[in-house]
Amino acid sequence: MYSNFEYASIPLEKISLDVKNPRLVTPKPLKKQEEILEYLYEHEDLDVFIKKISGEGRNIGAERPYVVKKGSGYTVVAGNARIAAYKVLSGLMKPPSGHAASVPSISEENRKLLLDVECTIASSRDDLLPIMASAHFGLGDKTKWGYLGSRKAIYDEWASGRS
C-alpha cells in the first residue's frame, strides 16, 4: 500500500481543503473552501497556527501533507490546517471577515516559498486511513481529533458501507 505513495512538489493553488476532514464536525456538511477556512479559524485556532508559520517559516520539520488526486488538482487529506495557513499567508485565500487584521504580513520571498508544497500523494483516501488513525486517535504526535471528530471519522466510514 505505502509503496504506491509518491512524493512531489505541488503548486499550492492546485490543493483543495478536504470537505471530509474529521475535524469538521457540523450539523450541515461544509462544501465550500471558504466555509472550511472559517471553521478552522473559529474552532481549530488557525490564526495561532498562521502566526507561528509567519514567524518560523514554512513549518520546517513537519511531515509532508498527504494528498489524493482529484480531477486536475489534489485534495489534502492530512495537513488541512497547514495548507489553509499557507493559502491565507500567500494570498490565495482571504480570511473570514473579522480575521483579516490578524493575518501577519510576510516577505515576498517567504510568500513565494509557500506556493509550492512538498506532498505525499496517496493512491486513495482509504490508503491514508491507517496513518490518520494512528496519528490522530491518541497514539501519534498530531493534534487529537477529540471525541466528536474521532466519532465522525468512524461514522463516515460506517456510512460509506464499511463494517
Protein model, in words:
The protein has 163 residues and is of the alpha/beta class. The chain is 41% helix and 16% strand. It has helices at 33-44, 46-56, 80-90, 108-114, 125-136, 146-159, and strands at 6-11, 15-16, 66-70, 73-78, 116-122. It has a 5-stranded mixed beta sheet with strand order 1-5-3-4-2. Helix 2 (46-56) crosses helix 3 (80-90). The longest helix is centred in the last third of the chain and has 14 residues, at 146-159. The radius of gyration is 15 Å and the shape is globular. The two termini are 20 Å apart. The mean pLDDT is 85.
Most strands sheet: 5 strands, mixed
The SSE order reads: EEHHEEHHEHH
Number of strands: 5
- What is the average of the pLDDT values? 85
Strand order of the largest sheet: 1-5-3-4-2
Number of helices: 6
Rg:
15 Å
Unreliable stretches (pLDDT < 50, length at least 5) are none
Helical residue percent?
Answer: 40-55%
Quick rundown:
By secondary structure, the chain is α/β, with parallel strands linked by helices. It contains 6 helices and 5 strands.
Keywords:
163 residues, alpha/beta, five-stranded mixed β-sheet, 6 helices, 5 strands
Write the layout of secondary structure elements.
Layout: E1 6-11, E2 15-16, H1 33-44, H2 46-56, E3 66-70, E4 73-78, H3 80-90, H4 108-114, E5 116-122, H5 125-136, H6 146-159
Parallel strand pairs: 2-4, 3-5
Antiparallel strand pairs: 1-5, 3-4
